[in-house]
C-alpha cells in the first residue's frame, strides 16, 4: 500500500457539497492532469466543457433526471468525445478524413473516460469530492443543443466537483476472484462468490439508509437489465457522424 493506492480505494460518490469555491487555477490544474492520461495513438479525443452559467446548469440538471447537484455543485464539467479537431487536422494537410468507424467511436470514448478518471483522482488528492453524471445521456439531443456541440462531438458524461459536505462509506466492490481470471475466462466459482458479495451489499445499503433500502448487487443488476437502455443512443450517435461502419 502507498498513498496513491489508499486514495484510490477510498473513492466515494459525493452528492452534497460545501459552498466553498474551486478556484479556476485549481480547475486548470485538474484538466492538465487529465490531459496526461493515456490516449490511443495520441489522438487526444477529449474536450471538456466547463459550465458556469446558472441557467444552463439548471437545464442540464433537468436533462440528467433533475439531479439537483448538477445545478448546485461548485463546478460542473461535461466530458465530450471529440473527433472534430481531427477533421481539422486532416484539412490542414489536404487530406479527407474517413469518419464514422466504430473503432473511432471506441477510441474517442475511451480517451474521454481515461481523461476524466485522471481528473477525478487528481481532484480527490486535493480533498475534493465528485460524482459522475451519466444521466446527461437521458436527453442527449437536448444536451448537445444546449452546449452547441457540432458533428463528431458527443457528451459522454458530466462531473460534479466540490468540497464534500457528507462522509458516506465506500461501496463494496465485487470479489477479486470474480474480476481477476488466470489465463482464461472461468466463471465456475462466480455464482457462489456473487451470493456472498450480495450479503455485503445488502448490509451496506441497510447501514447507509437506516434500513430503508434493502438491495443486493445481483438484484439491482437484474432489475436494471430487464429494461431498455437508452435506445435513442444509436440513432443519435449515427446522426452525429459516429458508428456508421
TrEMBL record:
MF GO annotations: oxidoreductase activity
Domain of life: Bacteria
Protein name in UniProt: Oxygen-insensitive NADPH nitroreductase
InterPro entries listed in its UniProt record: Flavin_OxRdtase_Frp, Nitroreductase, Nitroreductase-like
EC main group: oxidoreductase
Domain Nitroreductase: 8-162
Family: Belongs to the flavin oxidoreductase frp family.
NCBIfam families in the cross-refs: PRK10765.1 (NF008033)
Species of the source: Marinobacterium lacunae
EC code: 1.-.-.-
Keywords: Flavoprotein, FMN, NADP, Oxidoreductase
Amino acid at each position: 500500500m502507498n498513498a496513491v493506492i489508499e486514495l484510490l480505494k477510498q473513492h466515494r460518490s459525493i452528492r452534497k457539497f460545501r459552498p466553498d469555491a474551486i478556484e479556476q487555477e485549481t480547475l486548470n490544474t485538474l484538466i492538465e492532469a487529465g490531459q496526461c492520461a493515456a490516449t490511443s495513438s495520441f489522438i487526444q479525443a477529449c474536450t471538456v466543457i466547463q459550465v458556469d452559467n446558472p441557467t444552463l446548469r439548471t437545464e442540464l440538471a433537468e436533462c440528467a433526471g433533475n439531479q439537483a447537484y448538477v445545478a448546485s455543485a461548485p463546478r460542473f464539467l461535461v466530458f465530450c468525445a471529440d473527433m472534430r479537431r481531427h477533421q481539422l487536422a486532416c484539412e490542414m494537410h489536404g487530406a479527407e478524413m474517413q469518419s464514422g468507424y466504430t473503432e473511432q467511436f471506441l477510441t474517442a470514448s475511451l480517451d474521454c473516460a481515461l481523461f476524466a478518471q485522471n481528473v477525478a483522482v487528481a481532484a480527490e488528492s486535493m480533498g475534493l469530492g465528485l460524482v459522475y453524471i451519466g444521466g446527461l445521456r437521458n436527453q442527449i439531443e437536448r444536451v448537445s443543443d444546449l452546449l452547441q456541440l457540432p458533428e463528431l462531438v458527443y457528451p459522454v458524461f458530466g462531473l460534479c466537483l466540490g468540497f464534500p459536505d457528507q462522509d458516506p462509506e465506500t461501496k463494496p466492490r465485487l470479489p477479486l476472484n470474480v474480476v481477476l481470471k488466470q489465463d482464461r475466462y472461468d466463471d465456475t466459482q462466480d455464482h457462489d462468490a456473487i451470493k456472498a458479495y450480495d450479503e455485503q451489499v445488502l448490509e451496506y445499503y441497510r447501514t447507509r439508509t437506516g434500513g430503508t433500502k434493502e438491495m443486493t448487487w445481483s438484484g439491482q443488476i437484474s432489475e436494471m437489465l430487464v429494461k431498455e437502455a437508452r435506445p435513442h443512443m444509436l440513432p443519435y450517435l449515427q446522426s452525429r457522424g459516429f458508428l456508421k461502419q
